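This part of the workshop introduces the protein records we will be handling. As an example, a complete record with its sequence and its structure tokens follows.
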Amino acid sequence: MLLKVPGIDSTVSIILTILGGVGFGFFSILAGGCPLKLHVKSTKGDGASIIYLVGFYVGLVYFHVVVIEYVAALIGV
């Protein structure tokens, strides 16, 4: 299901969704697995997984605070 952002054309929304998915998958592969697997490994005390998840959640906050406003300003919303 595509999230409809007010003021953003559906074509731009689809392109951003695809780029985000590809980037998310690429960096998850570099980290050694999918985020669900890393959540499970972090509960077992794996330090690398915990660091990955901290970065994951910091990235989510950063995206919603900074990147969305930048993209909106970039496309003139």
